[in-house]
Amino acid sequence: MTSDQQPNQTMKVRCCIVGGGPAGMMLGYLLGRAGIDVVVLEKHADFFRDFRGDTVHPSTLQVMDELGLIDGFLKLPHQRLQKMDGLFGGTPVRIADLSRLRTKYPFIAFMPQWDFLNFLREAGRRFASLKVMMSTEAVDLIRRGETVAGVRAKTPDGIIDIEADLTIACDGRHSTVRERAGLEVEEIGAPMDVLWFRAGRRPDETENVFARVEPGKMMITFDRGDYWQCAYVIAKGQYEAVKARGLQALLDDVTRMAPILRSGIAEVKSFDDIKLLTVAINRLKRWTQPGLLCIGDAAHAMSPVGGVGVNLAVQDAVATANLLADKLQRGCPTEDELDAIRRRREFPVKMTQRMQVIVQNNIISGALQGGDRPLKVPLVVRLVTALPWLQGISARLLALGVRPEHVHSRVAPGY
After folding, report:
1. Which of 158, 178, 179, 181 has its CA nearest to residue 169?
2. Looking at per-residue confidence, does 270 or 415 come out higher?
3. Alpha helix locations (H) across 360-387?
4. Distance between CA atoms of 153 and 167, rounded to whole angstroms?
5. What is the spatial distance between Cα 389 and Cα 399, in angstroms, rounded to a whole number?
6. What average pLDDT does range 136-140 have in this prediction?
7. What is the strand order of the sheet 79-81 is part of?
8. Residue 89: is it exposed, middle or buried by C-beta count within 10 angstroms (0-12/13-18/19+)?
9. Given phi > 0 = left and psi -120 to 50 = alpha, else beta, which region is 281?
10. pTM (2 decimals)?
């Protein structure tokens, strides 16, 4: 432990989860439901972060159904997407058709992530064993010899030591816990970054185009009811060059690609209204140390391709609860038992990242190179567009993933 600040207080729990994102809040809910004494630490005062992953895929909707939460969840404001259509060099293409899935919820729900996380927090209040601490930032690990024994955290009331049999890092791609543990990250790389912004939407504006690809340019638009959520893809490291061209040049490119944004683009008044997402694909070689487990983005950062990051994190949480809830009743699982999470989840993570890299290398990189040559629709995209049954296969990979998890963890008596 490197922090020289002394704690004002100490608390002891069976499991300390660092990070209140989708992985952390779902795992906290599942362990609380199992009667495990668990605390979730979220460094911010609320969950309100704009431009986070807002896509809730059928795999996650199925988990919510298995938990008996789906009816209330789908009452929250959201939009639904089934057919993923695009324009590739002006040619209409269809990437996936979720209506072909034989699943209970054959659609992607677009919902602000803060609504998702607040819903899980409110639903978890009935579990006496679950505590969520907001404005609480883990700053270091507590160790006993080679074993992680909890975290030191900063709160509005001072420093607190949270001693835990098991610490689980769910604190994202810039994980403090992972960094303090010294776990090695394998960088896979991505050729692009993404500029996120909103454009206003009038009630009479409708369009089914999801993706637009032109020579040197690529953009994704999501219909979010009263606004358009936009992702403008740029070559890796080119943000300063985009800024140097000026805001108007960027907005002109946007409206040329997507004329429907013309009326609402005035809401983007400066580069302060545009958020840069630095895209990374990486994964840990080792997810554990004695007393420590990393899951979600802390274990494997995903590309925004497919919008699967939230859902991979939820799948990690479900698998973790399935494999560890019973063992946590007795204390800290062994490192081999903790490593069972990696053994279970590494294959779907690697396969998903591999598919993202294929899309990046074969579609996105070529599109971002630009040039004067007309942009040709890649063969695989032409095949998927021409053969509806292939649209069902692509939808399954996108919506359900390689190895979807189902809730098997225990429910404590009385819950």
Report:
1. 178
2. 270
3. 365-369, 379-386
4. 13
5. 15
6. 96
7. 55-56, 108-110, 79-81
8. middle
9. beta
10. 0.92
